[in-house]
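Give me the fold.
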Amino acid sequence: MKKYLTGIFTVLLLFTVVLAGCSSNNAKTTSNNGKNSDSYPSRQIELVVPFAAGGGVDLAARAVAEYLSKEWGQSVIVTNKPGGGGIVGAQYALKEAKADGYTVLVNNNSATTMYEAGNSNPTLTAKDNKFVSRVAEGTLAYAVKADAPWDNFKEFTDWVKKNPGKLTWASVGPAGFSAFGVAEWLDSIGVDYKKTSMVSSEGASDSAAKVAGGHVVLAVHTVGELYSLAESGKIKILAVQSSERSPLFPDVPTVEEEGFKGLTVKWWTGLSFAAGTPDDIVKKWDQAIAKMEKDEKFMKELEKIKLEPSYLNSHDFTKAVKDETDKYTELAEKTGIRK
């Protein structure tokens, strides 16, 4: 009997130890599952800008970095990786870096909707992104050299109709923001997009400099990106593509005032992660951006860099990207952008 009782006691003891181990493992698992958002961020975060410094995406990224560095008490740095119309930097952030929430792509149309629409076999698609939030938008503007012979957008358009082969324009790539802006405008006036010539640039600041130097005829970027050279008298804005005149250029008419209907291309920038990034980290970022877009100091920073706040949450941003990709794919196929 004594041996029998000892055996039962031993079994019970072992069973208790096993249960304790399971309980400990479950607690650890629960702790690990909540660890991502609870302890995040615990180190430096890298915001990857896939364009050169000085453009709208870069300036917006620096405003976001400044806000979040203070909000989270962690260093948030901006890294510029230009090239390939935004794809070099996007490839790094979405495919090469770890999907752990510490590498964030500061995205825009050129590296997402326009790139996918303009390429029949894109190396990156919307599925490679976990879209966090849209941050800001910018109004498209048409700029030429300050001493160019055209006084308004209609005169310039009439010249292009007669001389499509002489039109050169700058863009970060054959399927970038400028390309789609130019393509939509040319399609509306019945000019063959393929008869004009694109000159490659590293971003808006480079495009504007090329126009100011007489190396290309036209730059199509946001009003904010063209503002400094326009203010210094090196380029002139012929028209802005919005429903109302830009407060930056109150004397410059809209494209509709100049008689052009249906021009809708608009610039935006937002944030996205690699597809495998934990959902709780994406949610934490989206909540932080929503809060940021109500912050008075951040709003003033956007105003300084001539951008308009345009927050969309993760769900709405993802849907907007899909809808825009479909729309631009149709334009790209019609005009010959899509390769």
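The CA atoms of residues 181 and 265 lie 6 Å apart.
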